[in-house]
Design goal:
This protein has about 425 residues and is of the alpha/beta class. It has helices spanning about 30-35, 50-60, 90, 130-140, 155, 165-180, 235-240, 255-260, 325-330, 345-350, 355-370, 385-400, and strands spanning about 5, 5-10, 20-25, 40-45, 80, 105-110, 145-150, 180-190, 200-205, 220, 230, 270, 275, 280-285, 285-290, 310-315, 320, 415-420. The strands form six sheets. A seven-stranded mixed β-sheet has the order 5-4-3-6-7-9-8, with helices on both faces. Strands 15-12-18 form a three-stranded antiparallel β-sheet, covered by helices on one side.
Length: about 425
């Protein structure tokens, strides 16, 4: 094939297979969405014993992939129980593959706790934060056609080595650029793609030799637009379409907790203790994550990796927690996804997963870019959006004004009730 004046002549070669190497696969939420979009998971690797058991149980169950006739989830996938720090390209190549084999997509989200607002935000000082370097190492070894990286949005505003918000993400993009990969970053809300859950995550797409795709266009919104965006799917709608929970999965409040929760309206929670700050004379506070009443008229709040999800009022008028199965449905997992381990482990696997509807939307734009073939010119990284820059600048201002107050203190007792923002 030749090119004259920047225009290609002749027929394009057949595009490579849409295979994925999935790192930090967890319970398989990212893989489920990518497979629904048309990808096939070649290898799924994780270190967590229960998560690996879940992946193997799902593969054995032969759950059909929605929209793909004759295809089942994790069909033909090699499931690897391994620490990413010990993995090499040779470990991830298919059997009998040549040493120059390249996956079409390397996807994963290293543990989010180093950057999460629900953790201690130690960032790169947390050993889990250093797993990013091993994902980048495998990008270099495998040379995938595309890279998909997912994490909490706290990575965007986490303070870097010099104390500046945003420099950790800048460093990741710079490392990818050193490897020859252009990248694009954004924060996306799963509710904007049909999930009954408000879950905002940081996404990065990268490629060295294809067109760098745009992020998918939202299909839903808080404010729907006729012919463009549907209304958000609410928690109430999702629960109405879900089977009633098994009695053994139901957790009810008791004692003082039950009395406190009864005083809350949907969308309210119990406050943690706060500190008065110059721009917050009423105090800087948060919610007790184990004491929040879900609002069924909105998508759920973010499903967390904890066995203390939000409380709902069921048909008999009693309060109960969202069950593992309900949380899995809000995460978009197909019916029958067999989570393994005890209840705490199953909640953790569900909460740590990538939301499936969002993963499918990302998979669709990546697959379209793959099918277009290599680009005529090397791709370039676009600048950050105005929205991302505003967030980092606001965070920098906050730390200048209130940084000395930002000592994480978890109150032992609630102070008051408040309405969810």
């Amino acid at each position: 094939m030749s090119a004259v004046g920047g225009v290609r002549s002749g027929r394009r070669p057949r595009p490579p297979s849409a295979d994925v190497v999935s790192l930090f696969a967890g319970a398989g939420g990212l893989d489920a969405g990518l497979e629904q979009a048309g990808w096939s998971t070649a290898v799924a690797a994780d270190f967590d014993r229960d998560a690996v058991a879940t992946l193997r149980a799902v593969k054995a169950a032969r759950l059909p992939v929605h929209g793909r006739a004759q295809r089942t989830h994790l069909q033909g996938t090699r499931i690897t129980a391994a620490d990413v720090r010990t993995l090499t390209a040779a470990d991830l190549r298919p059997p009998r593959a040549l040493s120059d084999w390249r996956p079409s997509l390397l996807a994963g989200g290293p543990p989010c706790q180093p950057w999460s607002s629900a953790g201690h935000q130690k960032g790169l000082r947390d050993p889990r934060g250093q797993l990013l370097a091993h994902m980048l190492r495998l990008v270099d070894e495998l040379r995938p056609r595309f890279v998909l990286f997912e994490n909490v949005r706290g990575l965007l505003t986490a303070l870097g080595p010099t104390g500046r918000p945003g420099e950790n993400l800048e460093a990741i993009q710079a490392d990818l650029a050193d490897l020859g990969y252009a990248s694009r970053v954004a924060t996306l809300n799963a509710a904007d793609f049909g999930a009954a859950q408000r879950r905002v995550r940081l996404l990065l797409l990268a490629t060295a030799d294809h067109e760098l795709p745009d992020f998918p266009v939202p299909t839903h919104g808080r404010e729907p637009v006729v012919g463009e965006r549907k209304p958000w799917v609410t928690l109430g709608e999702a629960l109405a379409a879900h089977p009633a929970p098994e009695p053994a999965e139901v957790v009810r409040p008791s004692g003082l907790r039950a009395a406190e929760l009864e005083l809350l309206e949907p969308g309210q929670g119990l406050r943690t203790g706060g500190r008065v700050e110059s721009n917050r004379p009423g105090g800087h506070w948060g919610y007790r994550q184990d004491s929040f009443r879900a609002d069924p008229s909105l998508p759920s709040r973010t499903i967390r990796a904890a066995s203390t999800p939000d409380w709902i009022r069921d048909e008999d008028g009693l309060l109960r927690r969202l069950t593992v199965a309900e949380c899995a449905a809000l995460q978009g997992f197909p019916t029958g996804w067999a989570f393994q381990g005890g209840r705490t482990s199953r909640y953790r696997q569900v909460g740590n997963a990538v939301q499936v509807d969002l993963a499918r939307a990302l998979g669709e734009v990546l697959l379209a870019a793959l099918r277009c073939g290599p680009a005529d010119e090397p791709p370039t990284s676009p600048p950050w959006s105005v929205e991302l820059l505003k967030r980092t600048r606001y965070t920098a201002m906050e730390h200048r004004v209130n940084g000395h107050h930002r000592v994480r203190v978890r109150a032992t007792r609630p102070m008051a009730t408040t309405t969810e923002a």
